[in-house]
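Reopening closed ticket. The problem is back. First fold of the pair:
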Amino acid sequence: MLELLEASAFASWVRESDSVWAYPTVLFLHTLGLAFLVGLNTAVDLRLLGVARSWPLASVVRFMPVMWAGFWINALSGAVLLAADATTKTMMPVFWVKLAFVAVGMMHMAWLKPAVIRVAVSAGDRLPPHARLVAAGSLLAWTGATVAGRLMAYLGPGSTF
């Protein structure tokens, strides 16, 4: 199935085309999505860790749709990048490490962080005791996903990670 995906006309075009609209644009979109997703998650995590305490926690809720947009930009562009080189990328241990970190980061963004923010807002911006742990876990997950994703350019399918 991966070979068929990689051999598709679209995947071949993304991988082999000289057009700026092929691989360069998909990679740009992946980077843009990463900036929105990880950048805003980092800002919220730092707030949960005590940075910028004058910033009301209720205001971070406005960032959630932008973080989700960043996630979907990354998911779609990542699927295209995967299709262009599916048989190689899926054989790389670092690819699976990246996906595991993304899953943990998404768990924090979808369930843990909103729950912490709801509790804090209802308590007058007083953070629950586990807020720092949630923020630290989120920062670790997104840092791991970013580093593992970058290492994919340097670690081939046979390398260990």
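Second fold of the pair, where the issue appears:
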Amino acid sequence: MTDLRLRTDRLALRRLTPADLPAVTALCGDPEVMRYIDDGRPVPPSRVADELLPALLREYAELPEGLGCWALEADGRFLGWAALRPPASVGLEGTDGLELGYRLLPAARGRGYATEAAAALVRAAFEELGAERVAATTMAVNTASRRVLERAGLRLVRTFFADWPDPLPGSEHGDVVYALTRAERAAATP
């Protein structure tokens, strides 16, 4: 077992550690990062320290090897995280395969890091972990995230409308599911 999950041309994806608390707090406390996630509000530092980071760290022991949430680093700088997990998001409940997710600090956006990490995890899901399907969800209005999913090889599967307790601006347009199956990937790979 190693702390490094994988390396791309520019990124290292590694296990989160307790020492990442300030970086994870900054990531989840940023209103721009959280705009389309959960209730759209920054996560308070105490909740990151007491609940979120400990839950992410537990995943390494509880999930099969290769799954979990991975810190994204470029030149030793924390840029955000990317994750592969069993499907749990609204819209994916009860589906098979793995769920892809990511969060990037605003300063790291627009440089292809999210796409690079997402594509690497999609590849790993199929080639290393034997997944039959990789899926992700985002708000329909989150065009940047939708582009990342498309560039990582996932395709729009459906739009759905959930009854959110505290709807975010744009939720009236619904949420979208993107996915890629092993068979679709094989057919698209020369």
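Update: turned out to be a display glitch only; the data is intact. Residues 112 and 148 are 8 Å apart (CA to CA). Helices lie at 21-28, 31-34, 45-62, 113-127, 143-151, 182-188. Please close again.
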